[in-house]
Amino acid sequence: MSNKNKILLFLLICASLISCRSKHHTQISTSDSGNELRFTAFFPTSKTEKVERFIHKSLQPANLFANGHEEVDATMVLSDDTRLHIKSAAGRLKIEFDKNRNSEASYERVRKLCEGIKEIIVAQ
Predict the structure, then answer these.
(1) What are the chain's domains?
(2) What is the pLDDT of residues 50-108, one digit of tens each?
(3) 42: helix, coil or strand?
């Protein structure tokens, strides 16, 4: 195989991998271990506003998205002393929750938040 063909093959493989991460791709992962709850989602950017509104409503009176659609990377302490880390951008979200630093009620609150976000993302 010539170098030109190898380069072309490499570029085709790269293009295929990139297309798997298109704006319409959905991937949701939840990890609930003994010490941590971790929620990660990649979803169509068209669902970003709905996801942000749901997070805002669920975490009130905290206002994570005060300036509209923006990238967020913040550790939050809510009014009930729930502590969580949220990293968000259009079509991407990551929530990390340390069970050792939070109460059982806080865990349930964040678990329900993640379930609600998942429902929004997978809804047609």
Answers:
(1) 23-122 (3.30.310)
(2) 999 999 999 888 777 766 667 899 999 999 999 999 999 999 999 999 999 999 999 99
(3) strand
The model's pTM is 0.78
Counting other chains too, the contacts that 27-33 makes at CB distance below 8 Å and 24 or more residues apart are 28/118, 28/121, 28/122, 30/114, 30/118, 32/111
Neighbour-count burial of 28, counting CB atoms closer than 10 A to its CB (0-12 exposed, 13-18 middle, 19+ buried): middle
Q: 């959905």: which residue's tokens?
A: 26
Torsion sign over Cα 52, 110, 28, 36: positive
Paired residues of 38 in beta bridges: 31, 96
Give the Cα separation of 95 and 85 in Å (integer): 6
